[in-house]
């Protein structure tokens, strides 16, 4: 499985009582499908996977698979800081019918190079489905260097890609330059999708596309097709939105924006809370400019 293009790390809508809002979830999936995105990640960081129970994750994966009906791949966020738990979650995701797994590198434990390779090898051997490393040092408190990611790829044929959210283009290039033939890189930071693709990445797993899937998809595919002039123009247009998504911790801003656009209730799982008033004011200004269409300047 070669993972390419734009994959949206979809938010998880909740009702005001804290329960899953499945009708809103399926409507969000429809918005993605209508915009011709290439895949959806369910229960990633943007989907508040850290505070969703195992049974709720299974419900979301089943709902996504049954609703999408194979039109795009569903990628399940099953990573944790415990190898056995990750394997159990991954088997549940496979049973639900997902097409790939997103595996965040273990947080808190801070495993060594050997521990990380052993962790991914154990998952690789237990679950026969395409798997994506998720390196996000801003959340795990540990960057996984190129050397280790490449060692994991060499040891694990099921590990077909890395979502690189280190915000380190040099590290991305080192991975791309030395990757085995079955292994590709996906940008994990929206604003670096263009430079990463220009350097050889095959796509992005994105936050922005929750509410601007069509425009961001145009950027991604223009870059993949080598139309850098068009991609650069869209990149400049999207810069304020990249910034807005991280005024506070993700997914607080993106869920607020989706709420203001009428798609979901404004509800989070503790310890996440509603953005503060000053953030809401800034995001209200952004909402007024959102238009998921694009007309080139020339």
Give a description of the structure:
The chain has 298 residues and is an alpha/beta fold. It has a single domain (5-287), classed as TIM Barrel (Alpha-Beta Barrel). It is built from twelve helices and eight strands. Strands 1-2-3-4-5-6-7-8 form an eight-stranded parallel β-barrel, surrounded by five helices. Helix 1 links the parallel strand 1 (5-9) and strand 2. Helix 1 (22-34) crosses helix 2, helix 2 runs parallel beside helix 3 and helix 4 packs parallel to helix 6 (146-155). It starts with a strand and ends in an 11-residue tail after the last helix. The model has no long low-confidence stretch (mean pLDDT 97).
Spatial sequence of strands, sheet with the most strands: 1-2-3-4-5-6-7-8
What is the CA-CA span between the terminal residues? 37 Å
Summed over residues and divided by their number, the pLDDT gives a mean of 97
Give the overall form.
globular
Q: Give the tally of β-strands.
A: 8
Order of helices and strands: EHEHEHEHEHHEHEHEHHHH
Q: What is the count of structural domains?
A: 1
Q: What is the name of the CATH topology?
A: TIM Barrel
Largest sheet: 8 strands, parallel, barrel
CATH superfamily: Aldolase class I
Would you identify the CATH architecture?
Answer: Alpha-Beta Barrel
What radius of gyration results from the CA coordinates? 18 Å
CATH class: Alpha Beta
Query: How would you classify the helix and strand content by structural class?
Result: alpha/beta
Provide a count of the helices. Answer: 12
Low-confidence stretches: none
Helix proportion of residues, in percent?
Answer: 40-55%
In percent terms, what proportion of residues is strand? 5-15%
């Amino acid at each position: 499985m070669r993972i390419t293009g734009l994959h949206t790390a979809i938010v998880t809508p909740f009702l005001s009582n804290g329960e899953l809002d499945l009708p809103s979830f399926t409507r969000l999936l429809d918005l993605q499908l209508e915009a011709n995105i290439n895949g959806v990640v369910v229960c990633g960081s943007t989907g508040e996977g850290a505070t969703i129970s195992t049974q709720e994750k299974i419900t979301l994966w089943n709902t996504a698979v049954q609703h999408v009906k194979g039109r795009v791949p569903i990628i399940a966020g099953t990573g944790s800081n415990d190898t056995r738990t990750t394997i159990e979650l991954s088997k549940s995701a496979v049973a639900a019918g997902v097409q790939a797994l997103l595996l965040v590198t273990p947080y808190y434990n801070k495993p060594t190079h050997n521990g990380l390779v052993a962790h991914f090898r154990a998952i690789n051997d237990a679950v026969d489905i395409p798997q994506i490393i998720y390196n996000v040092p801003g959340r795990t408190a540990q960057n996984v260097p190129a050397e280790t990611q490449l060692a994991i790829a060499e040891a694990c044929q099921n590990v077909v890609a890395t979502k690189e959210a280190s915000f380190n283009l040099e590290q991305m290039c080192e991975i791309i330059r030395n990757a085995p033939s079955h292994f590709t890189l996906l940008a994990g930071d929206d604003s670096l999708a263009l430079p990463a693709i220009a350097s050889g990445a095959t796509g992005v797993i994105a936050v922005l596309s929750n509410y601007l899937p069509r425009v961001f998809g145009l950027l991604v595919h223009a870059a993949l097709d080598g139309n850098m002039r068009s991609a650069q123009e869209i990149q400049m247009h999207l810069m304020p939105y990249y910034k807005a998504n991280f005024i506070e911790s993700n997914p607080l801003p993106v869920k607020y924006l989706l709420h203001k656009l009428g798609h979901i209730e404004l509800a989070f799982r503790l310890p996440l809370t509603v953005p503060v008033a000053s953030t809401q004011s800034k995001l209200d200004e952004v909402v007024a400019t959102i238009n998921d269409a694009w007309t080139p300047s020339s």
